[in-house]
Every structure is written in C-alpha cells, then in structure tokens.
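<discrete_fold_record>
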Amino acid sequence: MNEIDARSKCIKELLSGVKYSLDYYQREYKWREKQIIELLDDLEGKFLDSFKPEHERSQVASYLPYFLGSIVISQKKSGDMFIIDGQQRLTSLTILLIYMNNLKSHGKNVVKIEDLIFSTQYGKKSFNMNIPERIPAFESLFKGLLYEPQEDNESVKNIVDRYNDIEANFPETLKNNVLAYFIDWLIEKVFMVRITAFSDEEAYTIFETMNDRGLSLNQSEMLKGYLLSKIINDDEKQEANKIWKDKVFKLLNIGKDEEIDFIKSWLRSKYANNIRDRKKGATAKDFDKIGTEFHKWVRDNKDDIGLKRSNDYLNFIVKEYVKYSDYYILLRNASIKFNPDFETVYFNAHHNFTLQYPVLLAAIKKEDEKEIAYKKIRIVSRYIDIVIARRFVNFKSLSYSALAYTMFNFIKEIRNAKLDNLVNILIKRVNELSETFEKVNTFYLHQQNRRNVHFLLARMTYYMEIKSGIQTDFVKYINKKVKKPYEIEHLWADKYDRYLDQFTDAQEFSQYRNYFGGLILLPRGFNQSLNADTYEDKVKHYLSDNILAQSLNEKYYEKKHSNFLNFIKEKELPFKPYAQFNRDDLHERQLLYKKICEEIWSSDRLKEELEK
C-alpha cells in the first residue's frame, strides 16, 4: 500500500461515494460571512470568464478550470476517511451544494447533485460529511427547513449562519437558467488536490510541511517584491522594505487576513475605474481583478497608477501605502471596539459590511490633515449607516452582489473629494434614495431579518437614551457573548386566544404580533420569565430596564425624566404610556418607531458630523 497518494480531483470525484469524518481533536467549523462572500465572488468571477448566454450546456466542458486548494486525508484501516486539513472548505462546499439543490428547481434545467451531499445504502441515508453532531442541521437545511442550533455547538451554529449567508449573497447572475451551467462547472471543472496518507502520523507530517515550510508567497508578498524590484537605490529599497514589514506586522495584529484585505480596499478605493457588469457573459474588470489577483493587476496597470520611475515606486510605498494603511488600521480598530468618535464605522461593521472600507478610504486624499480625514470618515460612514437602515426596513439585502456595483460607482463619485463637496454629494444622495422609512408602517420581524431588527431596536434605544441624558452603552444591547444578552421581546405573548376579538385568525394575529412597534429589547432571563404573561403584567416590569421598555409605563412620564420629556416635545415624537396594548395601540407605536428612525437616519446627521 502506498504511504502517500496525491491526486487532483474535481468536486464530483471528491464528494461522490465517500464519507469524510473528523477526529474528536479537530477544531470547529469556523468560517464567517467574509470567507463565504469571497468564495462566492471567486467562483462567480471564474465561471463568468467563460460563460456566454448563447452557449449550450455541453460547452461547459471547455470552460476554464479553477483550483480550489488542497485537502489532507488520513485513511484508516477501516477505510474511513478522516480530514486532517481542509474541513473548512469541504463543509462550505457541502453547504453551498445544499443551497443550490434547494434552489435548482427554480431553473429551467435540473442537475442531480444529491449524491454529492448524501448517499443511500440499504435504504439508509447518510451525509458525505459524516459528522454526527452536524447531521440534524444538514438534514433540516437539505429539506429547506429552519434549524435552531444549540448555543454550545459552534460548528452547527456556523453551518446554519453560513447557509443563511449563501442565501443572502448568492449572485443573481448564477440563478435561473444559468444555474445548471454553473453547477456543471462547479462539480466538473473546479478541482482540489486530495492528499491521502494511510496513517495519522504521515497525514500530520504532510499537514505540518504544507503549513510550516515551503509556503508559496501570498499576494501581498508578491506585490512587495515587484515594487521593491523597481526601486534602484539599495538604501531606499531597504527602507521601503522595512516600512512595508512594519505595517504588515500592525495589520496582522488585527487579523490574519488584514494585510490582504487592506491592499484590496486601498487599490479599489483609489485606482479601480471599472467593474464587471452584473449580467450574463460579463468579464472581470479592475474592481474584480483587484479582489482576486491584485499583485498582477498592479503590474499590468502600472502606467495608469503612475508607476514609471524608481521614485514613483518608492513613493507608492513610503507615502501612499503608509498613509492609507494607517487609516485602514484606524477603521478596523473602530470596527472592532466601539469608539464614539467613529461610532458609525462600528455600526456598519456589525453587519459585516466590508465594502465600507474602500468607500471610506476613497474620500481621503494623501494631502488631507487628520482632522479633515476624520471628518470625511465620520460623514461617509454616517451616509453608509443611513443607506443600511433604509435597506433594512425595505426588506432589502446587504449582500456583496447586491451592492458591489452601487458602492463602486459611489467610490468613483467621492474619490479624493473636498470636504464641502463631499457633504453636498452625500446629502443629495440621501434625498434621492428610493428607500425611505415609509415602509416602517408595515415593517415586521421574520426569521431572516431577526439580526437586523435587533440592531434597529438597539440603535433606537441607544439614541433615545443619549438624547435623554442617560448614561448608556450601545454594545451591551448587541453583545451576544455576555451571560444575559439582550433579546427581542414581543409585547404580546404568543396567545391568540387573548385577542380573538381583534383578529380574524391566528395567522393575522401572528403577523401583527411581529410588527416592529410591538417589539422591544430585554435581557435573556428577564425576557423569558415574562414570556407568557399578559401585556398588563409585563408593563409593570418594563420600568426597570431600557428607555423603549420604560416608555410604555405611565410612571416613566414624571418630572425626574425631564430631559426625555423635553426631547420628545422638541422632536414631536409621539411617546405615550399604555396600560393596555391592543391593535390600534400597535399602529400608534409603529408610527412612533417610524419617526424615531427618521430622526436617527436623517440627512441632518451628516451636517452634525462637521461640528464634531
């Protein structure tokens, strides 16, 4: 028997008739939305490089292949295949296949991919990623059902979340009649190298060798090598190399991918002049190529960038790279830890809206003083915050495919803009947005927008407390890692029999119960203890928590809360207490929430940023 076997296999070969398992010591499935979006974007781009709308499906056989990396397997004596390295990609591919299997019935053609997800033997179905604690989630997702993971199972939670990310971000260019072509290409023309050892010891030796020695250069290192090679003076070259390494060290202290992500954001913000059209048969352009191979893109576009002489390459590192990496590090730190000076950067990052970084860098000129640059960051991030909130209440996605084209055009519009011009551009854009807060009148909670609704309620609570002079902390309302995190509380218990006189059936009651105006935030435990109580009993306890809950109780409207009373009078916010809460009251509260949203996400907030 061979000690090591390495073979290139397409996805169909990799997943057909094979059961992959994990030993107990393997780490959890940890991919985040960022990795899923990057995978989808890469696959979409490589597929569209070959696809043409007039093609027959048989022509997919001649499409360009794509290499997705390698996996390391230990094959036990029992014949079982245990993943040593590569479970993140295999799990993500399985989730993608499950999603496309659910989606494929909407297309004109059907591609049979169930066998790549599970196989049946002696009438018993088992998944090809044969990991017991993950099977219930896979089964529910395969059937198109909702699945509520246990809080202590990180992998299962991430699997469900990544399925939702795929559902939200799957490119429109790959749906409908194109889907069959894409599936054919994915399973036949996307390859991985499967390295199989026949003992754990050999498998781990391979894994360590691949990860500790002989690693190929990443894009950043290849770009650095190219730029340094064009600097003639050895002292200048050494100084530029030292500066580059210093910035890389600081970037990697934030996260292992930050070095790459920064360069993508920087180059897109300053130099991308076109983007792939979101239509069938479109080819990759600047914005897309920077995302996949920026080291090659810089070399191919050096003249347009202004890289002609040795000094140009030197300045590209010691001035531009340094300047924009410093701002990027500032932005990433503000996105991770709440900073009142850059609060909207944090808000936008909460939605994993990574497109904000090239947008924010676009407005900053190399020559800007820090004070001006900071104002630009606050103003532009505030504009993005307004756009996001309006999309939420209009039930619109924040997916990369939905917004990349719009954000690219926005980048070009504000690139290196003067501060006064920038403010005017953003105010004009807000006033021209097709999404308004009118939809708040019928906005409601559903399974897919729970996180968005929670965020809106947190922002409203935080805003009202700030304006009422109350010491508050936005992070506590959204932090899920504390012992008693805040959760969405329905003012009405799920008891239709209490409201028979107000609704025609249980379905109508359920719809109204989830209306925005009938929701607040309460800490877990407190929320659960009141779960089945009547509103009349609940409202007595609301007085002890946050301002949106307290405002339902008549005792809150006393002189000791004069800041609150003065603010709602000034802004004409129709707050009022409710001893009881019926259908008409819900409509009133919905109108109140609409007016709060209009205050928080008004174009006037852009002008306020200039005063800071």
User: Anything to note?
Assistant: The mean pLDDT is 89. The radius of gyration is 27 Å. The chain has three domains: 4-212, 219-435, 439-610.
